[in-house]
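Hi C.,

You asked whether I'd gotten around to modeling the 125-residue construct. I have! Everything is below, sequence then structure, no commentary in between.
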Amino acid sequence: MIGYVTLGTNDLEKAAPFYDAIAKELGVGRMMEFDTFIAWGDADGGPGIGVTKPYDGDPATVGNGVMVALLCKDTSQVKKVYQTALDNGGTDEGAPGPRGDDGFYAAYFRDLDGNKLNAFCMTSG
C-alpha cells in the first residue's frame, strides 16, 4: 500500500550519507535523486524512504508522533541498522530488544534532523 515515505531535512548533504549507510545495510541504494530530494529503495520492490528539503522553503520540522518503521529480516539486522544509525550521527531512542509479548523486536533512533525511525522484525515470540 505505501509506495514511499518522505522526511524533511534542513541539510540534504549531511542527511544523504546517514541514509546511504542505513539503506546499504538494508540491501538497497538510491532510486531517485534531485537537487532537493533523495529516495532510497528498490524501484521495482517495496516501499522506499525519501529525504527532502521542504518545497515551501520553510525549515523542516519533526512531526510529533510521526515515526518511520524499517522492516528488517531478523534481530541481527535490527541491531546492525540501529548501530549504523548511531555510528552515522543518529541518536538513541530505545536500544534493540523485544517489545511486548507478541514477537515484535525493535530499536528506535532519530536521524540528524530529529526525525524518529525504528528498525523492526517479527520473531516467533
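If it helps when you're writing up: The chain has a mean pLDDT of 95.

Thanks,
B.
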